[in-house]
Write a structure and sequence with these properties.
By secondary structure, the protein is mainly alpha-helical. Among the domains are: 5-132, no CATH class; 172-296, no CATH class; 325-415, no CATH class. It is 54% helix and 3% strand. The protein contains 21 helices and 4 strands. The strands form 2 sheets. A two-stranded antiparallel ribbon has the order 1-2. The chain has a two-stranded antiparallel ribbon with strand order 3-4. Strand 1 and strand 2 form a beta hairpin. Helix 8 runs parallel beside helix 10 and helix 11 packs antiparallel against helix 12 (263-274). The longest helix is centred in the C-terminal third of the chain and has 47 residues, at 454-500.
Amino acid sequence: MQSKPTMSEPCDLQIHINGQQTFVLSEIDDFPGGPDGFELVSRFCYNNGNIQITVSNVSLLHCCAVFLGMTENVSSINLLHQTDVFLEGIFYWSWTEILICLKNCEPFFSCAESCGLIEKLMCSLLAKIAQNSDVNLFSVSSSSTSSSPETGSPVVSNGSSSRKSWVWWFQDLTILSPKFIDHFLRTLGAYGSDNNNLVFTRFLFHYLKTALHSNGIRNNVSAEYSGLADTLVHGVVLMGKNAFSCRRLFWVLRIVSGFGLSSERRTALERMIAGMLDQATLDDLLVSGGDKGGVYDVNLVLRLIRLFVRYNDKLSLHKMKKIGPDPNLKISKFLGVAESLPDFARDSFDQVYRAIEIYLESHPTLSLEERSRLCRCLNYEKLSLEACKDLAKNPRIPPRIAVQALASQRSTVQMTEFVNDDSLSLSSNIKGIDNTNDYQIVLYKHNNDDDRSKTDMETERLSVDKEVMKVNLERMQWRVVELEKVCREMKGQMARMVKLAPQNNLGRGPLPRLC
């Protein structure tokens, strides 16, 4: 009796056997390797159970055999038995053969992982690393002598350069997708918050850097790397500043910013960088803004400076003053950076003025109001005399700001002179007071070696007065030139009016002279 499918029974294939029976077959889902895997199994079946098994196809054949249940219970010397025998020699394979077999598992990774094939290949891979390196993978740091299993070339290293001995396998493993590296680290107990290993941390840095630079990471792909990015940052923070310099930490931040790093890990990394921010240079701070808009991530700089001030209250002024504002910013961001540090954190504002000068040069279209607003972050009393003179001569600085700066310098000089002149007389007057209580007022006169002479202070005060007068004269000269220009324009207009006036108006007398 022949059975036929009804209209409600969709099928992909109908097989008629001897005209007696029709078998309705549907699509096979999740078949390992897809058509390639099915073709290999078909060749095995139609060739009386014979097929050439190689390093390149053993992973696919093994997973197909597991998927179809091709065990000895069904047929002797079945496909699963043959692949098992071939895989027994895995520890005699070369490093390259293991990598090839592992890489070929990528299209059917889930099946290869569930049947234990990935675990077997990973163990063989780790054995090769151990055989060709004296480094202990589970130590935080160590000296080592190692060589590539393919070339046998030794790489000797110790101390801070010990990471060079791991480069050969670092680079080779970059051909594997993130899911393989996830499994690799989980097998070793070094994934996520379990990562306390310097070797694996540096490997992850190399792996993610290669992935970012070689392939480019799209938004829909970066999620695959997020776990690895978190693992890297956890290891970096755990190892601390003894293992990573400030510049290397910024490189880590640049790399992981291209992946889906969790907010918790990012905060921990930024806090660690902030603790070493006094070692940073301007180039270190120029981290790309990415998809947030803008060339550089200005908000990152602001966060780091705030963290630096907040978590480093006991740092010396010497460390704090080394943080300088970035001149390539909008005015609001520039001021945010400059004013993140209190005035007492800087014993000189010369570098702040230099940054303002650079900013004004790169933004020549700023209005007078904007330039005045920009200069509000200056503390004129902490400007050196040379910087103040340069500020007064700078045509980009508003005149009012220049006068204020020079006046501040003059008052500073006068105050210093007053203190030095009156210190002795003030002390003598206080000594004459009859103190009936236990309180005492003690004034100390500075040593002459530490103070400037009166002649030097008088010369400086006269120099400041001269600069103030020079600025005022320049402003007055500029004003006279402007008035002369307006006068010439008015004379020209009046001359044209005279030419156009009617003849009967000539008898009214000459026009008044304007200038």
